Amino acid sequence: MEPLRAGRKGPYFFLSYAHVPPDEADDSDPDLWVRKLFRDLCGHIMHMTDVPPGGSGFMDRSMRTGQIWTTELADSLAGCRVFVPLYSPRYFRSSWCGKEWTVFGRRTARYVTEGRGGTPSAVVPALWAPVEDRQLPESVREVQYTHPELGDRYRDFGLYGLMKVSAYRRHYERAVLELARRIITVGQRVVVEPGQRTPLDTVPDAFAPVRARRTLRITVAANSLRRLPEGRSPDYYGHSALDWNPFHPESPRPLAALAAEIAERLDYRPDLQPFDTWHHEADGSTAAGPEVMLLDRWVLRDPEQRTRLGKFDVSHRPATGLMVPWNGDDPDSGDAQHTLAADAEATLPRKMTQGRQACRPAVGGIPDHESFGALLPHVVQWAAAQHLKNTPAQPPPGRGTPRFRLSISGDQDSQPPVHRPYTEEEDRDEQP
């Protein structure tokens, strides 16, 4: 078996897990228990190998709402020895986790000892919460995840359940020790060639076929390089409205990509649309789901776009939440701020009102990407509630249960009422 070399790049294992959305009523860390598991695994691996300090494992600590994926995450995923997915029902609904699985799965694996049968794999699943077989995507059903050596309590409750019940402490300690031993064994028996640093938003989601999630449309009304107003700096724009980055250079990614990432964390499937593709004639009804519009006030300097935004404002879209970023450090912002804010009020009075209902600071000029990340979940929650409120209930397809009518026959004083269903002819006769 190949010993672990201290100079090897990348952590011994990469912990892939689904972040739990924060609860507005509770400011505690929702992933606290995952962090404890990670520390316990790293401690065991440090004691049982010669890894250097900090080389045991990687856990994504930065992926909080409003923050971007990190280079450290990409490098760790490209260089780790073992991939440890933390199974839970939420895990397989996370496209982020599905993309991490895809990136690791693209790396070439081989056994250290030649002649071993089977396909080499350095994926060591851990059960965080019980998962039914039907919840597993096709792409992972052949991967063994209920290891007998981890104990029956582990299989029945998962690591989270063992951690939360004090009577099961010894079962938790046994399961984590055995899991660490398995990670080490796989890391010694299987060599996974280093991969390339891969932005996760460019790869497919390994779990996509089994997910039926809500869609969140994210419409971006912004300028592009080909249609900038006179005197406007091009530093914040790209070839499409979806490339708009109002918080450049502090934020390295376009606002639409950041919004899509946050939507994923909120368990939505983001549908990114530049406002350029919206046409009033083709929009005759309420959107198919909740929607968030990201407005670049500078786009109001374009008469054509301003006219189209006015038509969008009066269209029947009650589930659209408006967000208006405004970077005060933008050199062009000082003289234009009040004029463009007034233009937004005049062009989009209904959407501005809805935006204040959703979250007043969201339309007042969001100053930075951290504030944007903190406000977006509130706007999405409001838009989702409005969508449910304004969407008519759809009856299931097919013919409903036959109605019954009361019939009296024979001696009315002695015969009980007889119930019989309507005939199809009677049912048609009563239609208006």
TrEMBL record:
Pfam families linked: TIR_2
Alphabetical list of InterPro entries matching this protein: FxsC_C, FxsC_N, TIR_dom, Toll_tir_struct_dom_sf
UniProt-recorded name of the protein: TIR domain-containing protein
Region spans: Disordered: 389-432
Top-level division of the source organism's lineage: Bacteria
Residues of the TIR domain: 13-106
Lineage: Bacteria, Bacillati, Actinomycetota, Actinomycetes, Kitasatosporales
Organism expressing this protein natively: Streptomyces dysideae
GO BP: signal transduction
